């Protein structure tokens, strides 16, 4: 069973590399994403990367004929699997973890991101990162669209608690949720909110971009 799994990944990665070399990135499978990273716990317990690498780069390849011992071959083959297969495919797939760990938010393609990657207030907080503003705007738009598709909270106006007890993160969460609820609401409630405090106020959310809507908060 395990052997068939290794062969499946090897065949899938080989096909993906052919697509990659032809520039057909949108036809790639997710084999590279689910293949364990080299030296990960799964790789060490199953020797999966080595088995997949041996299938992709056999010992009798011209590149390895001059190698005297199998250990040297295994090292060269695993390194080749990482550099020539897994890393290029990860980059082509634009897997979010690759860019988040490298703090390359400007290169992150939202259409491949996990919708649950950030909470509403975390998306707003990421607006302060000069390289993450574009991503934050796209994440917010997607979150609003997802909420609108559910068809709920369309006939209501949210109350935002901005009292003294809500300083810090609680305040950020409150503002973010109210803004989120106000967007898919229908008229006359759309883009409107009321503050909950000693002096309640009625507010109209202005601007088209998230950065504009939050500029007054």
Structure description:
With 217 residues, the protein is mostly helical. It has two domains: 2-93, no CATH class; 105-213, no CATH class. It has helices at 2-21, 31-34, 41-46, 48-56, 70-93, 96-101, 120-125, 133-149, 169-182, 210-213; strands spanning 159-161, 192-196, 202-204. A three-stranded mixed sheet has the order 1-2-3, covered by helices on one side. Strand 1 (159-161), helix 9 and strand 2 form a beta-alpha-beta unit. The longest helix is centred in the middle third of the chain and has 24 residues, at 70-93. The N and C termini lie far apart (57 Å). The model has no long low-confidence stretch (mean pLDDT 77).
What's the gyration radius in Å? 25 Å
Q: What best-fitting shape do the alpha-carbon axes yield? A: elongated
> How many separate domains make up the residues?
2
Number of strands: 3
Report strand %: 5-15%
Overall residue-averaged pLDDT value: 77
Order of helices and strands: HHHHHHHHEHEEH
Order of strands in the sheet with most strands: 1-2-3
Low-confidence stretches: none
Measured distance between first and last alpha carbons:
57 Å
Helix/strand class: mainly alpha
How many helices? The count is: 10
């Amino acid at each position: 069973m395990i052997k068939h799994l290794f062969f499946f990944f090897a065949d899938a990665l080989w096909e993906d590399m052919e697509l990659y070399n032809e520039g057909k990135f949108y036809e790639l499978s997710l084999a590279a994403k689910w293949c364990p990273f080299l030296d990960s716990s799964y790789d060490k317990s199953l020797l999966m990367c080595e088995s997949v690498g041996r299938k992709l780069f056999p010992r009798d390849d011209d590149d390895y004929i001059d190698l005297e011992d199998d250990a040297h071959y295994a090292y060269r083959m695993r390194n080749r699997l990482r550099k020539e297969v897994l890393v290029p495919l990860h980059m082509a797939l634009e897997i979010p973890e690759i860019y988040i760990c490298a703090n390359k938010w400007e290169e992150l393609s939202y259409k491949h991101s996990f919708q649950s990657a950030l909470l509403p207030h975390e998306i707003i907080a990421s607006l302060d990162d000069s390289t993450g503003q574009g991503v934050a705007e796209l994440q917010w738009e997607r979150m609003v669209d997802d909420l609108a598709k559910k068809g709920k909270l369309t006939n209501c106006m949210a109350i935002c608690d901005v009292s003294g007890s809500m300083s810090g993160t609680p305040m950020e969460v409150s503002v973010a949720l109210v803004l989120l609820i106000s967007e898919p609401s229908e008229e006359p409630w759309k883009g409107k909110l009321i503050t909950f405090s000693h002096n309640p106020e009625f507010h109209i959310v202005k601007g088209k971009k998230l950065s504009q809507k939050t500029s007054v908060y």
